[in-house]
Amino acid sequence: MAPLLEIRGLGYLSLLKNVTFRVEKGEHLLVVGQNGAGKSTLLRCLDRITDDWTGEILFNGVSVRKIPRKRYAQKIAYVRQGGETIPDMTVRNLVLTGRYPHRGFFAPISRRDESIAENALRLTETDTFADRKFASLSGGERQRVWLAAAVAQEADLFLLDEPAVYLDCRRRNEMERLLDKIRRETGAALIEVTHDLNRAADSILALKEGEALYYGDPVGILRRGTLREIFETELDVTTLPGRERPIVMPGKALSEEPR
Fold first, then answer.
1. What is the pLDDT of residues 192-228, one digit of tens each?
2. CATH architecture, domain 5-221
3. How far is CA 63 from CA 19, 39, 98, 189, 219, in A?
């Protein structure tokens, strides 16, 4: 059986170079790397916002260039970093925009659309403020609403561009819990751009200057030499009592002279 998503030799200008990986149904893949490594560009290529890439992107074994855009939009949900502010729209109406790929911009909202949106609100725990104006929400609440719209889209794959950015520790933990809950209850796969190397996931892709320097099991990247090559700084890998997986902590900068 073909994987949900398969990338073969993806290239885009000088920003991505021969990137290859795959994502199975229900899998959680992290994409890491320094700022400017090509992480967000990768998501734009996968969502076909950027369409003049080279190589192959296969969805369920079919080239995405052969899949009608509307059909592809029903399968891929892109949650951008921070999202935009919509002053006069309520949370419920914003979540209903997730139904656009299924019904078109000018088609009336059906009872099924409303039911799916209500389920998305409950799943993302945004139903308690569904009638508030989106602009009145905190940053963490807004990000959860964009997630709810993606859930309402009934996508098979979520593209998440740093969903926990700008969030404090408590809300970052809440976001991670919600993402795990969404994946568990919808069966969707997640591709998540993050700077958090301690984030639990099934696999990890590390980019540097547009190239994939590592792809595989998240534990395999936790070697000081590998981390130094990717991030160009020293990172310490340590274990904590009661925690099976090692964690990454800041180390001494490479430019720092020993005393």
1. 999 999 999 999 999 999 999 999 999 999 988 999 9
2. 3-Layer(aba) Sandwich (3.40)
3. 16, 21, 24, 18, 31
